[in-house]
UniProtKB/TrEMBL annotation:
Coiled coil: none annotated. Keywords: NAD, Oxidoreductase. Pfam families: GFO_IDH_MocA, GFO_IDH_MocA_C3. This is Gfo/Idh/MocA family oxidoreductase. Residues 13-128 form the Gfo/Idh/MocA-like oxidoreductase N-terminal domain. SUPFAM superfamilies: Glyceraldehyde-3-phosphate dehydrogenase-like, C-terminal domain, NAD(P)-binding Rossmann-fold domains. One of its GO terms (molecular function) is oxidoreductase activity. Residues 138-273 form the GFO/IDH/MocA-like oxidoreductase domain.
Amino acid sequence: MAQFTPQGSGTVGIGVIGVGNISDTYLENLASFPDLEVLIVGDLDLDRAASQAAKHGIALSGSADDVLAHAGVEIVVNLTIPAVHAEVSSRIIAAGKHVWSEKPIGTDLASARALLDAADAAGLRVGVAPDTVLGPGIQTAKRAIEAGLIGRPLFAQTQMQWQGPELFHPNPAFLFAHGAGPLFDMGPYYFTSLVQLLGPVATVAALGMKATEERTILVGDNAGASFPVEVPSTITVLAQFEKGAQAQSMLSFDSPLYRTGVVEISGTEGTIVLPDPNMFSGRIAVVRALTAHGDEPVWEEIPEEGIVVGRGLGALDLARAIRTGRPHLATGELGYHVLDTMVSAQHSAATGAFVNVESTVGEIGSMPVDFDPFARTV
């Protein structure tokens, strides 16, 4: 495990690069944490950056270069499109700043590895979404599983199927391009949760398909326009974990039937159902083995522990970790292992072969029950 020393004191300055759809929720939450101050936002579209800055009461806006040049910014939150995540994050490291990146860490292993190596060499940190897994939902379940509530975990099932992001996104083409699709867009939520709960993935096998070669934009100024589908729009992944558990995961943008957020883990002493890993909170419950045929299952509800917030929680944990010298939780190495798992699944779907996941990740810490995002701690 990497060794860290405390850095700096006082409120941690934040810069944001990329002010697309997801930036609103980030900016709202980051502004609510007393330990952080958003100093500047940047985007390729300078007018859009200025509009977001005005909307959220941020003093400065400009380009990505303006964010990187700001002397008060210690962490840059990278909300650009997935295809340039690793490139932009590498520029952030080169500018001497820590990174919090939206998922995935990158779209290929070489650039993601180069990013992490550069950060290590510079003594800087990389944190990677999803930070939903740091919320009370997944963290409460993690503590319960580690305490033996379901015995030894045996197998898991996850499912995410719906009609696709063109239902709401005005520019959805990038979500069907190389480095995206349901595997890279939604897969990080499910695979990060599974790795949090079951440990590193060892081997994967997958099948993928495209329902159509083109999709149609349904909302916004470009409604009615078509765009190409470059990657499987439905993929099913089998995973074998290093500790012996197995999992089956379905990810689809092709289903009129909406069924998302399914995460179930069965062990030797029971089955636990978890919240949607794209959310910070939700139902957690355990069912035990029946004692006689015809008995009704009895569900034990598990109360969540912790304060529910939203996206930006991981950046806050990173900031506090920088100040105190402790490891942060949503690490670049975890993000890299999840990327490796997805790249391996993509390769398996293309070749029909089982693929070994070459990377691993060390022990993953848990969010303390008493972590209060709204307290001033630095």
